[in-house]
Amino acid sequence: MMRERQRLEAGIAGIRRLESELADAHGLIEMAEAENDAAMVADGEASVLALAKKADTLRLESMLSGEADGNNTYLEIHAGAGGTESQDWAEMLLRMYTRWAERRGFKVDWLEESEGESAGIKSATLLVKGPNAYGWLKSEQGVHRLVRISPFDANARRHTSFSSVTVYPVIDQTIELDIPDKEVRIDVYRSSGAGGQHVNKTESAVRITHLPTGIAVACQTERSQHQNKANCWEMLRSRLYEIELKKKQAETGAFVGEKSDIGWGHQIRSYVLQPYQLVKDLRTGVESRSPDDVLDGDLDPFMAAALAQAIGGKKVEAIEDLE
Questions:
Q1: 122: part of which helix (H) or strand (E)?
Q2: How far is Cα 16 from Cα 45, in angstroms, rounded to an integer?
């Protein structure tokens, strides 16, 4: 009840703040027109346009009313086939989502990371904490495709790489899921990568596999094996809850990010760096001709379009349509 109260109070405060800023902008324009100050009028009009974008964001956030939209979320990234190329692309995606979270003031905890042989990562799991974290990030689930001239190819040839993103909400402790011990396999192993002498010398990392579904979760960030195991159990419960949640969403026609093969024909978004620069979402049609900005965390237009499409069935053809 306290979380719900805080969510409602934040929503009401956002609307009241918007109304106050709009009144100030109108007052500025009226005063500027009375004084024939064209520059001040232009500033007031720019403020109104900026407020219109904020209003659109608030409108979209008000639509995040799904059962788990307001929750924190887990985000997993897995490199596809292609060795070093895909592993480097997976690390680029990891940075992109970290930067997006930082822009929103969200907190990001690393739970698991498996380094690539030469560069990049094979996989990583993040815990993203913030208002409506799952509601926004759920639209990012799917296969992401990168086209570029490879920095690892001495002949400077163009390569296509794939990595997948999986998103599932952190569930409330009051939600009970019965997972029989016979349905899981628990493996312990040594943590990889930098982490100090303790984690590199003890088998503190834990992986839990749910045998009926094949879902595997891992955690290696804590020094204690027991804490890593507890984190894994929370992640597994969240994954199984997400499966049931998506069944409900599918029944009502809501947006569902399907998990599929990490390769051709399954991508949700393409990032082309050469021979031209373009990021295009293949579901909504939203495009950006500034891949550097997108890879630096400028994902809101893509997420907003996916949310608008899921709710109203409207396809947005370009970022300008959102403005």
A1: strand 121-129
A2: 20
The CA-CA-CA angle for residues 171, 188, 95, to 5°, reads: 55
Contact 238/74 with Cβ under 8 angstroms? yes
Residue 211 phi/psi, 5-degree rounding, is -65, -45
> Hunting for tokens 């997948």 — which residue is that?
164
pLDDT tens for 222-252 read: 888 888 888 898 888 888 888 877 776 665 4
Cis peptide before 180 (omega within 30 of 0): no
Better pLDDT: 61 or 95: 95
The answer to whether 270 touches 280, Cβ cutoff 8 Å, is: yes
Q: How far is CA 229 from CA 74, 127, 172, 236, in A?
A: 16, 15, 18, 10
Q: pLDDT tens across 173-192, in order?
A: 656 677 888 999 999 988 76
pLDDT tens column, 256-294: 444 445 555 578 999 999 889 999 999 999 999 999 999
Q: How many CA atoms lie within 13 A of 245 on its CB side?
A: 24
Q: Taking the model in full, what pTM does it have?
A: 0.73
* Dmax (CA) of the chain: 79
State the first-to-last Cα distance of the chain, in angstroms, to the nearest integer.
35
